[in-house]
Amino acid sequence: MRIRLVVMYADTHKYFGWHHNYDGWGTYKEFPSHVSQGGNIFDVGIQAAVFEGDRRIDHCTKWVGGGSKDPS
Known about the structure:
mainly beta
């Protein structure tokens, strides 16, 4: 399981680095992050993904603003 922050701007998406949790079900981790790029932020999302080694098998995105567009 890995997660990352995604920020949606008017014409692009900013993808942050992946963070992993290999400790199993019910474990909790925090990963500090911040957005340093200026500009108008249209939405912020979290991507969760399943990886096999370094290969992404599947993923989904949850937007704070409720959008459903998945930028991959």
